[in-house]
Amino acid sequence: MIEIDPQKLVKKTYLDYAATTPVDSRVLEAMLPYFQQSFGNPSSVHTYGQKAEAALEEAREVVARHLNCIPEEVIFTSCGSESDNLAIRGVSFAALQQRGARHLLVSPVEHPAVAKTARQLANYYGFDVEWLPVDEFGRVNPNEVAKRLRSNTALVSVIYANNEIGTVNPIAQIGSICRNHGIPFHTDAVQAGAYLSMDVAELNVDLMSIGAHKFYGPKGVGALYVRKGITLLPSQTGGEQEFGLRAGTHNIPYIVGLAKAFDIAQVEKEERSDRVLPLRIQLIGRILEEIPYSQLTGHPVQRLPNHASFVFKGVDGNALLMALDVAGYACSSGSACKTGDPEPSDVLMALGLPREWALGSLRVTVGNQTTADEIKAFLDILPEIIARMRKI
Amino acid sequence: MSGGVDSSVAAALLVHQGYEVIGMMLRLWTEPGKEGSNRCCTPEAMALARRVCARLGIPFYAIDAQEVFYNQVVTSFIDGYAQGITPNPCLVCNRQVRWDFLLKRALALEADYMATGHYARASHAQNDSICLMRAVDRQKDQSYVLHVLDQEQLSHALFPIGEFTKPQVRQLARDYTLPVADRQESQDLCFLADEDYREFLKRYSLSSSTRGPIQNLRGKILGTHQGLASYTIGQRKGLGIASPQPMYVLRKDIENNILIVGGQEELGIKELIACEVNWISGTAPASPFRAQVKIRYKASDAWGKVFSLGENDARVLFDEPLRDITPGQAAVFYEGDVCLGGGIIQ
Fold first, then answer.
1. Which residue of A21, B11, B23, B336 pairs with B53 in a disulfide if CB–CB is 3.0 to 4.6 A?
2. Known catalytic membership, residue B190
3. Are B290 and B254 in a shared domain?
């Protein structure tokens, strides 16, 4: 056998916090006792189980406090996508059963966890999915929702803050319209959890999905807020965990991690925003100024404070990501690029961007560890790399 | 990288030699619905290539080349058969996809070289130019498909496994504990997904799959052919004609959709004209020269005299007649181990 030393990596700068974040050490510390010491199954009768159950319910209370809801309205899941699936599928099936409702009103800038679930409901279960219009920034106009609500609308789903373009939607206004019509309203708040208000009473939402790893919690755990009175069918059946809505033994350390991370995120969100916002402003300002044929995607102001996204005309977005990675910068584009898929993303196409622009997308998302020096260094090399990509 | 043994070992050797290595894999075109069976870029092959890169601790990127592959390689394959020639898509792929499309992308990552798992060698000659040479393993030598390279491309080319035999490469894969050591390889064209090329062509080009008469040189009808694309020059089996002596495909009359056959004595040509000739040194030889010529990837060397005609053509006069000179395949010229270049047989 011949030993090969793994290639030495050049110093890497992580600029992809919208994809995932490192676990905060305070979160990790909170999780650790639940792997080996308090490892019980919260469904058990004995003391081990009771200790685990106590941790579970305390986590639920912490999350409920920041959502401004009651603990029974918080359902723990395995990730944001599962929360979306449970919300969309669960409410749609229940609404169909209870009142024959088959109409779904969905924005065209949803995460695939929502969009593909809605498409499956349309293609295999006879639901009628109507896609809402969005403006050039990917925002849903609440009036457009009002115009389209029907008595047989099963559910409205609009993403809180978009993962690809960072745009924040007017969730409270849309929610208020839905509430007035008695139609359940879901929002995918997976990207919003790190920086925005998650007060469900202010937001007028009936269902809201979150995922811990977007706010310095562990991967593999999420939650769904379900307002009391909303009925939904479980998408995973089995034991009676999570009020019968999500069967499966509780993943206590991860649920504890989610609660701790959410607590920190919500307590520190202004401080965190104040730190990342100047970096975002710097990124957007210099890129638009220094790189010809560049355009911001998403809303210039109503956007996540750590999120900058662009399209560059005549650039292969996948090639750009590779070149940046080789240069030591981990960024993302709009499309599922790992397999080299060249198709522009549905979200960018929904903005009405021409293909030759939409193919050259770049998302730069900063976070707790990002420094001003890193952003400066990144901005110093980006124009040359873009120019090189345009020569391919 | 393809997830196969050769490119994986090539990467491992370079990492071992201290190069900074980046793994790149081409996603090539497959007929819609058959993505799972493309020989070199199935999701499974991609997962393997990723595993190899992870094992070597190098980055891995998938490059989508479906459009360029379809436009350049697949269409010329279909068009070639429609015109009655027997095209060699691997040549087009090397010229247009690997050593142009992919090389540009590698250089755009500021790479100095692009290495492949081809069995061939590149070496610097005294006059500063780079020679393409046959691999040490003559059985596996792939210099034939690389004869399309020019000096610029060769200056960026590395062929790390060209000095090894296939069994040695397999052993290296085991020594490096790469998860691909025992992977089988297929000789079929990658985009055919294990299907006979005639079935593929039937779906894409009608004319070359139309039945027509089989005639001898005097115009006598001897039978019916199943579409000219199904036959190659020199073919004996599968003609479906009753004849006292063995009959061979002599040529194809595309215009009239006739397959022309004849006896062994009528087979065999001493001469060919090649077009689109690439001289690897960059300049056509001033005077005729004797060379070993390969008229197919797997053909043995045939001695002959090569005359350069104008810029891009060449004439080859063989010492002995050859019975399977096939328009569309390449004639590649060698002086010993050195590949001088080649062109497409007319």
1. B23
2. yes
3. no
- Model pLDDT for residues B43-87, shown as the tens digit of each residue: 888 899 999 999 999 999 999 999 999 999 999 999 988 888 889
A324: distance to nearest CA of chain B, Å? 9
A13-30, pLDDT tens digit by residue?
999 999 999 999 999 999
Assess whether pLDDT exceeds 60 at residue A91: yes
Which pair of tokens denotes residue A183? 């139609």
Strand pairing report for A13-14 and A103-106: unpaired
Position B221 in a domain: yes
- Residue B242: give its domain's CATH number: 2.30.30.280
**A54 close to A201: Cβ distance less than 8 angstroms:** no
Task: Answer whether A240's CB lies under 8 Å from A248's CB.
Answer: no
Q: What is the rounded CA–CA span in Å between residue A36 and residue B61?
A: 39
- Pick the residue from chain A with its C-alpha nearest to B105: A392
| Domain that includes residue B99, residue range | 5-117+160-192
In the set B40, B93, B131, B339, the catalytic residue is: B93
Type and span of the H or E element at B189:
none
Phi, psi of B219 (to 5 degrees): 90, 5
User: What is the CATH classification number for the domain harbouring B296?
Assistant: 2.40.30.10
Q: Is residue B103 part of a domain?
A: yes
Which residue of chain B comes nearest to A326, CA vs CA?
Answer: B109
Sketch out chain A's domains with CATH numbers.
25-265 (3.40.640.10), 269-390 (3.90.1150.10)
Residue tagged 């004996």 (tokens)? B236
H-only helix segments in chain B: 5-16, 43-56, 66-68, 75-82, 89-92, 103-108, 143-146, 151-155, 166-175, 197-204
| Inside any domain, residue B198 | no
Decide if B41 is catalytic.
no
How far apart CA A101 and CA A91 sit, in angstroms, is 10
Q: Note the pLDDT tens digit of each residue in B240-265.
A: 888 888 899 998 888 888 999 998 88
DSSP 8-class letter at B68? H
Residue type, A178: C
CA angle B225/B227/B231 to nearest 5° reads 80
Dihedral, B271, B276, B279, B280 alpha carbons, nearest 10 = -130
Is the ipTM higher than 0.90? The answer is: no
Is residue B143 in a domain?
no
In chain A, which residues have their Cβ closer than 8 Å to the Cβ of B10?
none
Helix/strand/coil (H/E/C) assignment for every residue in chain A: CCCCCCCCCCCCEECECCCCCCCCHHHHHHHCHHHHCCCCCCCCCCHHHHHHHHHHHHHHHHHHHHHCCCHHHEEEECCHHHHHHHHHHHHHHHHHHHHCCCEEEECCCCCHHHHHHHHHHHHHHCCEEEECCCCCCCCCCHHHHHHHCCCCEEEEECCCECCCCCEECCHHHHHHHHHHHCCCEEEECCCCCCCCCCCHHHHCCCEEEEEHHHHCCCCCCEEEEECCCCCCCCCECCCCCHHHCECCCCCHHHHHHHHHHHHHHHHHHHHHHHHHHHHHHHHHHHHHHHCCCEEECCCCCCECCCEEEEEECCCCHHHHHHHHHHCCEECECCCCCCCCCCCCCHHHHHCCCCHHHHCCEEEEECCCCCCHHHHHHHHHHHHHHHHHHHCC
Distance between CA atoms of residues A97 and A15, nearest Å: 45
Give yes or no: residues B28 and B89 share one domain. yes
CATH number at residue B50: 3.40.50.620
User: In B, what residues contact A, Cβ < 8 A?
Assistant: 12, 15-16, 20-22, 25, 27, 43, 46, 56-59, 61-64, 66-67, 104-105, 108-110, 172, 175-177
Q: Give the pLDDT score at A303.
A: 97
